[in-house]
Automatic annotation (TrEMBL):
This is Reverse transcriptase domain-containing protein. It comes from the Eukaryota.
Amino acid sequence: PIADNAGHCACSIAVKNSYPRQCTPLINVVSDPNSSEKKILKVHFEALEHAAVEPFREAPRGRAPADNAIIFLRLEDMAKKGQVQKVRPEDCPIVCEICLVDKAASPGNASKAPRDPNSPDLHQRFRVTVDCRPVNRLRLVYDSLQRFVYTATPCDGIKEVDKPRLAKQFLTTALLQIQDIPKSRVKSFGRLDLQHAFYSLHLSEGLSRLFAVAAKDPSSRRVQHYQFNTLVQGWKFSSLLFGLGTLKVVN
């Protein structure tokens, strides 16, 4: 009966033309809200940005106080650059956990410098990313109110054996993009410098709500929530969308 109701519900929605007749492009060029003279690339993903999502909170992970302080300082710096924004916890349907990447760490490197939140190279040495596994494995379920909603899967409920089931996306290379430039334009060349890589592409508001994290201020012990405004490393569609963004610039 549930399957019948679900199918009938989906059919009714389709008949009522509730699905948009013209899909929004994955990449749009829009005006920079901080400067009327600049343009930015904005990412859209209609299947998720307008979807109903069940509230989800990933369990906090135990970390050393120094790591927690580094995470907070990095997020504060990213907020100043517009890569993330501070939000209220009630505005975050999904809160994922943070991955702290130490660029100085390497296999067998036992003499690396200790992690110090007061280090002058903190913002160059450490990168903050999101553990996107709950978002990567959103499941579409049919609830008791006859609605389709997405529900996240906690990281501890994700088996490593499930990894190969993730869809592999074709990623165009820089060489292929150069080869695809029209012949009428091959007499000129330029350099495309995307210094901030994924941070160069901005997320729509509907997508930003899916990528929130929390960090504790070591001074006040107050927990602050942040939403990513830019493309998130670790999301299974980020590489594909980044490739489309570079093509948009080239074309």
